[in-house]
Amino acid sequence: MKPPVCVFIQQPLKGEHTLTKFNELGLSPAILESLNRMGFEEATPIQKKTIPIALEGRDLLGQAQTGTGKTAAFGIPLIEKASPEPDGVTGLVITPTRELAIQVAEELNRIGHDKKVRALPIYGGQDINRQIRSLKKRPQIIVGTPGRLLDHIRRRTIRLQTIRLVVLDEADDLLQMGFIEDIETILSDIPEKQTLLFSATVPPDIKKLADKFMTKPAKIKIKDKEMTMPNIEQVYIEMAPKQKFDVLCNLLDFQAPELAIVFARTKKRVDELTEGLNKRGYSAEGIHGDLSQARRETVIRRFKDGTIDIMVATDVAARGLDISGVTHVYNFDIPQDPESYIHRIGRTGRAGKTGVATTLTTFREMEHLRHIERVTKRKMTRCSIPTLAEVMEGHQRTAIENLMTVIQENDFRDYIELAEELLDHTDSVTLLSAALKLITKEPDKTPVHISEDPSFPGKGKGNRQRKKTVKGKKGKNIAAAKRKPNIKKRPQDKRKQKAR
């Protein structure tokens, strides 16, 4: 039986638990005003549990996935504890990537707007002299990557004596990327501090770091059911590898996402997908590690303000992106592991909104997809490839929406006289049908080449590696010998054979 084509209408979640309102957490009027302007009224679970403890001045170890609202969870206490009068840097946030540093600083600046508290991002790839000039304007909070922070500490352009609150964001990534020594150096140089550590996972190295630099930390863990993001519809479509790009285009046409992120496994595939999407008339740009920091910032800014509708990205380049309004995530390549999957789909369904995450999978990747389902404790819905008729239906729906938008905006007055002239010669139904046909996008089948991706993370069928043939001194095939071991049979085995 053919699986259904999945169409999702964003609706409030059933059985959603009651959230605590921010005005119940004892926050200052200035911060409440900023949160209200940002559209935040209710605290997420991690915010509800973290903010009161952090405001008490206690150390804290929080385990939560991306997309759970942890930036505001540590950002609100940071802003509350900072003074509007610049008297040195009082808060420090350490992040693993430049993109995350920028994102965190932007959110902190929105939260601190009414209290007049400023956060400055410090990261490699940006002119250090420009950063020094910005530091002279005396921001209260620094958000930075370990390497560039150490550069400024050694230059004494950042002094640690005034810092009272330190946040390690995405701590497991910090350690995985080899920043453990840098972090220990920075933390050792801060005399008296409150430390908040946030991590998606808590491996032994994280525990050692907490034991070394934290004092009886409160431990908060968001439950699995809260981490798998129930407000995100998770689906998959099974297909042959050569079908992937056309299926992606069909989905974009049929679902008409407002903002979408497409994830690819390699930089090369990001470039090819971006070029292919633009060839077929979509507004897309890509980000990956080979782009300059300025270029990446430009792409992210254009995506945020809606200049482009689709951003194609690798996992590393998109790490920590916090962009509101992303309605759809497409896994063009299946993620390497469940953690990457959770990170990817967490780009949508943020701040209480719903989203759709679609994984394009090949037949041999199904076992790996099932592994992701088992770890995340969430079954994905199987959907079919949209047909040409369904794609056309999506185009027609978009055309009607565009037409109704023009009517609602009353932006057609200059065409009324011309329309009346046309109605004198043609009936209204024929005229409107022709107009809809004219503004409806036809499916574009411009040839696009996407390189094959031989690398595959799973261990399912079709992914068996060839065993190398290794010959010994006598020229025997050792691999074959291993496959057919010469095992001596016990006497009873011989008797059984004779009996047969």
UniProtKB/TrEMBL annotation:
Q: What is this protein called?
A: ATP-dependent RNA helicase CshA
Query: Domain Helicase ATP-binding spans what residues?
Result: 51-220
The lineage is:
Bacteria, Bacillati, Bacillota, Bacilli, Bacillales
Specify the superkingdom. Answer: Bacteria
Q: Which GO terms describe its molecular function?
A: ATP binding; hydrolase activity; RNA binding; RNA helicase activity
CDD domains from the entry?
A: DEADc, SF2_C_DEAD
Q: Where is this motif: Q motif?
A: 20-48
EC class, as a word, reads hydrolase
